[in-house]
Design brief:
Number of strands: 0
Order of helices and strands: HHHHHHHHHHH
Mean pLDDT: 75
Distance between the termini: 29 Å
Radius of gyration: 35 Å
Structural class: mainly alpha
Number of helices: 11
Helix content: 55-70%
Shape: flat
Strand content: under 5%
Amino acid sequence: MSDTGQRRPRVRRRRPPRDAEATMTLIAHLTELRNRIAKSLLALLIAAGFAFWWYGHGLGEFIRAPYCGLPADLRFGQGAEDTCGLLITDVFGGVFIRLKVSLLAGAVLAAPVWLYQLWAFITPGLKRNEKRYGLSFVAVSTALFALGAVLAYVSLAKGLQLLLSLAGDGVVVALTAQDYIGFVLSLLVAFGVSFEVPLIAIALNLVGVLSYEALRTARRWIFFLTIVFAAFITPTQDPFTMLLMAGPMIVLFELAIQIARFVDRRRAKRAAAEHFHDLADDEASPLDASPSQLDATPTPVDDLRRQDAPAPVDGPAARSRG
C-alpha cells in the first residue's frame, strides 16, 4: 500500500468557549443590573460622605474663591474689603447647599466606579474587540470631565466680573448662597458634560456606527453646532465663557475626526485582507461551486485496491471469461 495514499486524520478546530454572560436569562440580567447599581450607589455614598466632610475643610472655600476674588464693590463684604460672604435666606439653606455640593462632588469622585459598572453591564453584548476599550473609555471620560470642570473654574471669575459689572454704579451686589453655588455647579457640569460629546463620536466610530466620511462631510456643521451649543449651555451667557467652552470642544472634535480616520483606515485594510469585504452582513458570500481542473500529475493509487490487480474488462470479453 502506498504511503502517499493514506488519509491524514482531520484535525477539527476547537471552538472558543462561549461567554456565559452573553447567554444569560432575563432574570440573570436583572440581577446583574441590580448588583451593579448597588455597587455604584455604595461608591457614590462613600464619596459623598467624604465630600460632606471635605466641604468644611477646604471645599467650601474653594467654591467661594472665584466670588471672593472679585473687586470689593462687586461682592458683599460685610463692611470690610478683605472679607466676602454669601447670604442664606432660610433655615435649611445651609444644609441643602452642603448636601447638593456633596452629592455632585461624590458623583465626580466615584465616576471611575459607576462608569466601569455601566461599561461592564453592556460589555457582554459587544464583540471581543469592542470590550478592549472599556478601561480606556472610563479613563478618558473621567479625564475629559475633569478638564472641562477645570476650564469652567478658570473662567468663572471672569464671567462673574463681567456679569456683575453690568449692573452699574450705585448697586450693592449680595448673592445668596443658593444662587451662587447653584450657578457654579451648573457651570462645572455643563463644561464637564460638553467635553464628553467628542468621546461619544469616537465610541460610535469604534463600534462601526459612525464613519469617518460622515464626520468629515459634516465637519463644518459640527463646528457651527458646537458654537451654538456652547452659547446655550453656558449659564453666564457671556462671549468669554462661550468661546472658552467652544474652542476646546472644536479641537476635541477635530481630534475625534482624525481618530475616526485612522480607525476606518485600519478597518479597511483588515477587511481587504479578509475576503468578501464589500458584502453586506446579511448577504451570502459568492463561493465558486464549479469543479476545479485536475493537475497533469498522475494521481496516487487508491489504498483500497492492490496495485498489481488487473484492470476490469468491460464488454463481451468479460462475459466470455465468466
